[in-house]
Amino acid sequence: MSASDRTWLWDAGALIALVDPAQPQHETAQRYLREALRTKATLYLSVMAAAEFHQRQSVTELPLRHWVVLPFNIDHAMVAGDLMRHARPAPDAMARAVVRDDIKLIAQAVCESIHHVLVESEGALSRHIAQFNQAGRSRVACVQLDQGFDAAWFNGGQKSLSLPDAG
């Protein structure tokens, strides 16, 4: 497994689920964090996800020592612009703003060779990742908390075997 296979970018929804026990995906987010730390995966915190998280609660409530803060730079901007030219058009201004932020996160993942993006559930971000992967513009795995924890994401897709008792 290459080093980039052990890289994760968390979106704001996944971060909220991690720190808010009232969120339905709280335990799953905590399991992903524990497994990432156990396997020495590199966790990235985009400044855009941090800003979205901070609208709801202070970003200092995150266990920041576990993340590499990822600023948005000119390389990310150029890739985001290229991706935006190929994105499906959004129906209204609010949706266009969400699409822009989602595509910026994807651009960061592409530029930094981040293999996994952790999201709370299927939404615009996961749909854009699928669209760009299908078009060959990215190779980012979108992992959804609402699908439950799967350790296979940390070991190259290898599923554990359930063997019958030897008794």
Automatic annotation (TrEMBL):
Tell me the superkingdom of the source.
Bacteria
Q: Report what the protein is called.
A: PIN domain-containing protein
